[in-house]
Specification:
Elements: E1 6-9, H1 25-38, E2 42-46, H2 52-61, E3 70-76, H3 88-95, E4 100-106, H4 109-116, H5 120-134, E5 140-146, H6 148-154, H7 156-169, E6 173-178, H8 188-201, E7 207-212, H9 219-228, E8 233-236, H10 250-260, H11 274-284, E9 302-303, H12 306-314, E10 332-333, H13 341-350, H14 360-375, H15 383-393, E11 402-411, E12 420-429, E13 432-440, H16 443-455, E14 466-474, E15 485-492, E16 497-504, H17 507-533
Parallel strand pairs: 1-2, 1-8, 2-3, 3-4, 4-5, 5-6, 6-7, 7-8, 9-10
Antiparallel strand pairs: 11-12, 12-13, 14-15, 15-16
Helix pairs in contact: 1-2, 1-11, 5-7, 6-7, 9-10, 12-13, 16-17
């Protein structure tokens, strides 16, 4: 029996069954190396032979030497009409040349009859036969009892018999799968107890695992309950990606096991990397990171209400269940219309501003903040704009350029042609007037290009700055096309990322406000770096 909990990641196989979650072979290799660095015990690479990407991955991963993780190939029991040594699926599994193989078999009698269309006895035969054939070829052999919990509820005796056959075939771990995700946490303990008693009575000493899906929002809970009942292997995916509503989320399960349940597994020592790995996976999949995700989301340790902020500053335990640093996350103090003096003072300290709690300027900043938010400004995702607001209020913010006017033209010559967008701008920098023009993919891009073109001569560092994201939100839809809009811009350079905001009835004006803040923040930050260096 295993002494430690075993973490089994199936992001590269089960995770890719999620809608809009797609990975190239290169992506899979990079994620494998990242998971290896985190200390994941087993990484399921895919189903060899099922598609070219899976086959290419198994060939490519042979070129890498992993520090800890072992790559697993995944597949099904043999086709009933094929002898094991002639079954293409089993041959592909062996051909993947992995340290281990995980195969799944049918537990639920409904699936045996309706999906495989064979007898219950024949299903037992192919389970044992497939495992027995694979056993000499690999170091590790796991059996996924597909639909186990549904099968157990439908026909307990048959479900248990399938497990017996898997052990007889040589499986070292029986993974109980809640494939439809319909089992609730209170059902898990009694079922596992029955399984344990049955195997013990039959003299079958084998590890148990859990593979839960999230269709009832209980995959993490089911996995943790299973471990509390003696399961030693937990299967899941990074960020819970998976078919339908997803799989059990390892970024929630691992810290819960390590920090709450005090269970030991290899990756415990690397929990500080968890948030980074979580974001790495979503970045490669080109998906937005779920900010509300427990432990690793950017909102997981974000505080908004002034009373909360004051308490957290005195003792973080008042509103945080763990220290964010333990999972590689950070504490964030948000600025909003709910903010109090504590929030403003916290931000001032973070920005390096000398602001006393009794200074009337704190009240002035709060009043301006609330007035701006009534207009639709929001600073939770635009800290750079808020820092500039504070510095302007304190009278210490330099103006790097003055606008003397801009014009944006969008021209469409016919119904078949796309719009042609051009912006002209006049600005003044240090007494020198600059008048320039630029084309763009849309009016905002044209204005951005024209502004940068005018400024780069004076501030060459702007050439390294990029617009990473651009979002528009309609604030009062009852006004239709005359509604106010809020523009959020995410900008980045070679070492950081920052957000700015603008609000107006005119989308170009709102975009201009956010663009100016973005450039001003970049120039201010670079100027402060030089002062520190000197």
């Amino acid at each position: 029996m295993a002494e430690k909990i075993v973490i089994y990641d199936t992001t590269l196989r089960d995770g890719t069954q999620a809608e809009n979650f797609n990975l190239s072979v290169d992506d899979k290799i990079r994620i494998t190396l990242k998971l290896d660095g985190l200390g994941i015990d087993f990484i399921e690479g895919g189903w060899p032979g099922s598609n070219p990407t899976a086959s290419e991955y198994f060939a490519e991963i042979q070129k890498y030497e992993l520090k800890h993780s072992k790559v697993m190939a995944f597949g099904s029991t043999r086709n009933f009409n094929n002898p094991a040594d002639q079954d293409p699926n089993l041959q592909a599994l062996i051909g993947a040349k992995t340290a281990g193989i995980t195969i799944f078999g049918k537990t639920w009698d409904v699936h045996v009859r309706d999906a495989l269309r064979i007898s219950l006895a024949d299903n037992l035969l192919i389970i044992e036969d497939s495992l027995r054939y694979l056993r000499p070829h690999v170091e590790h052999l796991f059996y996924d009892a597909e639909h186990f919990f549904d099968g157990f509820k439908a026909d307990r005796d048959y479900a248990l018999l399938t497990l017996e056959k898997a052990v007889a075939g040589g499986a070292e771990c029986l993974v109980l799968c809640d494939t439809n995700g319909g089992t609730l946490p209170h059902e898990i303990p009694e079922i596992i107890k029955v399984v344990q008693s049955h195997l013990q009575a039959k003299g079958k000493v084998v590890d148990l695992g859990i593979h839960a899906h999230n269709d009832t929002e209980t995959a993490v809970a089911n996995s943790l309950v299973a471990v509390s009942m003696g399961a030693s292997q937990v299967q899941g995916t990074m960020n819970g990606f998976g078919e339908r509503c997803g799989n059990a989320n390892l970024t929630s399960i691992m810290p819960a096991l390590a920090l709450k349940m005090k269970r030991d597994f290899y990756a415990v020592a690397n929990m500080g990397q968890l948030s980074e790995v979580s974001r790495f996976v979503t970045e490669l999949a080109n998906l937005p990171h779920n900010k509300y995700q427990p432990y690793v989301g950017s909102a997981a340790f974000a505080h908004k209400g002034g009373i909360h902020v004051a308490a957290v500053k005195r003792n973080p335990l008042t509103y945080e269940h763990i220290s964010p640093e333990r999972v590689g996350n950070v504490r964030r103090i948000l600025i909003s219309d709910q903010s109090g003096r504590s929030n403003v003072l916290h931000k001032a300290k973070k920005f390096g501003l000398d602001l006393d709690s009794k200074d009337p300027l704190v009240t002035s900043i709060l009043k301006e903040l609330k007035d701006l938010e009534k207009q639709g400004f929001q600073y939770e995702g635009a800290e750079a704009s808020f820092e500039l607001l504070m510095r302007r209020a304190m009278g210490g913010q330099r103006r790097y350029f003055e606008l003397h006017g801009f014009r944006v033209i969008s021209q469409k010559l016919s119904g078949e042609n796309v719009c042609q967008d051009e912006a002209t701008i006049r600005i003044e920098v240090g007494g020198e007037m600059v008048h320039t023009a630029a084309l763009g993919e849309g009016p905002v891009n044209a204005l951005d290009n024209a502004l940068r073109k005018a400024l780069t001569h004076f501030y060459p560092a702007l050439a390294e700055m990029e617009l990473a994201d651009y979002k528009v939100r309609v604030l009062a839809s009852d006004h239709g096309t005359g509604a106010r809009v809020r523009v959020l811009i995410e900008s980045s350079d070679h070492d950081s990322q920052w957000g700015t905001v603008g609000v107006s009835h005119d989308i170009i004006e709102a975009s201009w406000q956010a663009l100016v803040d973005s450039i001003t923040y970049k120039l201010m930050r670079d100027e402060r770096k030089k002062l520190v260096a000197s």
